[in-house]
Amino acid sequence: MIMTTRDQLADGLDRIGETLNRVAFEPVIRLGVTGLSRSGKTVFITSLIENLRNRDRLPNVVAVREHRIETAHLQPHPNQLVPRFDFESHLDAMTGKDPIWPVSTRSISQIRLSLRVRPRGVFSGLRRARTVHLDIVDYPGEWLLDLPLISQTYETWSKAAMDVADGLRTAKAKAFLEESEAANPAEAYNEATADRLSSAFTAHLRAAREFGYSALAPGRFLMPGDLEGAPVMAFAPLPPSDRPRGSLAKEMEKRFEAYKTSVVKPFFLAHFSRLDRQVVLLDVLDALDNGPAALADMQTALEDILDVFRVGETTFLSKLFAPRIDKVLFAATKSDHIHHSQHPQLDSLVQALVRRAKDRADYNGAETRSMALASFRSTSEGNHRCGGEDMAMVEGRLAPKGIPGASYPGLIPTDPKDILDEAHSRISEWIDWSFALGRFLPPKGRDATKNGLPHIRLDDAVEFLLGDKL
Amino acid sequence: MPKPTVIELSKDPKSAFDVDPILDTDVVLPDRSHLRRKQRQRPYRSLVWGAFVALVVLVMADAVWRFISTLLAEAPLLGWFAAGCASIVALGIALFLLRELTALTRMRRVDRIRAVAEQNWELADRNTAVAFRESLAQFYRMEDATLRSKRDIEPDLKEALTGADVISLTEQAFLGQRDSDAQKILRSSARQVATITAFVPLALVDVLGALVVNIRMVRQIAEVYGARSSLLASVRLIRAIAAHLMATGALALGDDLISSVAGGSVLSKLSRRFGEGLVNGALTVRVGIAAMDVCRPMPFRALEKPRTRPEVTAALAGIFGKE
Questions:
Q1: What gap in Å lies between CA A156 and CA A167, rounded to an integer?
Q2: Which residues of A363-398 are buried (b: 16+ CB within 10 A; e: fewer)?
Q3: pLDDT by residue (tens digit) across A206-254?
Q4: Residue of B14, B37, B41 lying closest to A380 (CB–CB)
Q5: Which of B19, B122, B154, B201 is the most buried (most CB within 10 A)?
Q6: Is any Cβ of chain A less than 8 angstroms from the Cβ of B123?
Q7: Whole-model pTM?
Q8: Do B285 and B279 contact (CB within 8 A), yes or no?
């Protein structure tokens, strides 16, 4: 059980008020955007907003094609407690004189885009354009990894976390394990030991993340947000033992429970459980680049994340009480870094990665889709002779300096099963193919004739996520 | 297999801002925006109209009420008779309104189904397509049972793997028979119009006849596709068809069409009236095709949309003889 009865009651009352407001006045679509760090959330949101404000590049959005969207503008968000997504400075970074990718999401942020949409249908002639608010909630995917913790006890979590550390062969993991073996869980608590343990644990998690692993809870240790250094963020798993009052293990358990009630639950109640639509961005290409183990780990993380999605069809009654996510989009980002002839392979790989989650979501009545996406396209395509062969490459400004260049990252195998089988064996290199991504910076030369930012399939994503509400 | 490589280029490549977008399919959906009138913002208009209608109804109700009460006072028998008549009228109006309302809601449902059907199915997944099939089946389930069994086949979806396949099967199952029924109506109407224009000697009477036949055809076609006949719905339908015809320029008929049917036959050169009959018949065909376009719960995809020339030829072959 994620919510206690009291939680549920308070939450329910809150929602009834909110729903009445939505039904009676202006509809609000809450779109959650998440993904593990560096998956391209910020770029996705920035490009989404910019392209909805200047709709020249969204031909596949039906409402845009029918010229039914009159205006779109940013508005102050009614919720004053959550930081605003800094759209303007991200856009400046991406389209300035020397375009660079924006800095990554550290914490939750949200922004409201209001659209004036003319209705369609028989009575369209009788009704005026209505306002649809699009609330975009941006939160680190790492936070989602925490949601399964709610149903775990300190003991079960400790065991799982120690197992992961044991399976990893990084230096930091070893250091942490030595540290935890040295500590005696039943001894009296003292801050120095606790501090040593928790910082070793945090260091191990960060190192594992650097190494390309993503299935790591607690997620706030990786993305602390504003809680950095608070005692609630300073705990670590310990080997199983008795936990007498005042012992180190007891204190750790207390902190773990505090983390659950004051960090994980509020996020779940205030944000996650209120989303209508969800985008999960996946940097599949980066995982392919990092090798089989990274991809296998991404799949595990994904499954953990997706288990907690409260997906299901929104019916009239359930709408009054619990808005649930009824559409989920899984998008492999940065697909402008490969030639478009490779997109079907990338798409089927994403499909294979999210299969289990998708089955579950389908079963619950939510619609899911996967696609290869580029929120802000940074490359063009062209053929170049290279090593005696004519190769289809992508061209652009190579990171980090922005010199012109072209990249051929290798071919993705057509059968995703082959890739995943290799991934599960956790070997260090792909067996008989190779993949290495060339990295590009955002393009220069924003043109005056066509507004909006270039992208790949962002309009399909918008149509899938919002089409029925526009 | 070549190894992954990164090379430097001597000159700047094209900026992504200037290249053509990557499109998955070259399916271009019809732009239906012309069917929707440009909206003017006049919030007070509905208020004024509402007030006006309320006033008229009030005046009428009041008049009837006074009339009946005075009559009851003076001649009770006549008064009761008038009261009976008035209540029958009131009941009739209520029934009429109910019918109009159900017809309109049904039309609105077609609109909703159609809105779903207009998406790009090459990209949609199978679940969406199956859900769409369900909504269409649900819509036609309310029809008269005998008509239904004649017109619907339950498609076998096991074979269909992609969303696009499911949609094609659905279209064939639910709309195949309906399309050909509509086509029959269209042809016979075209024939009637041509005959009327060619043989009715009085000017204006033939125009009236053609108009009546056209309106009847549109209503019949709408019923074939599952609409209920009603006044408001017909008005809206005819307006939509008119807009559609204007937008597609279907009314700009040239000699080419006449020649396509009469094929330079002596007939149309001999008699001006026969020529006119041909043109009017062809126009009716165009109106009919527009009606099919507007009433169909989904755009033509797997099934072929009837085209003007072959339809005109087929419709009028009976009268003017096959070439």
A1: 17
A2: eeebbbbbbbbbbbbbbbbbebebeeeebebbbbbb
A3: 888 777 666 667 878 877 777 777 888 888 888 888 888 888 888 889 9
A4: B14
A5: B19
A6: yes
A7: 0.61
A8: no
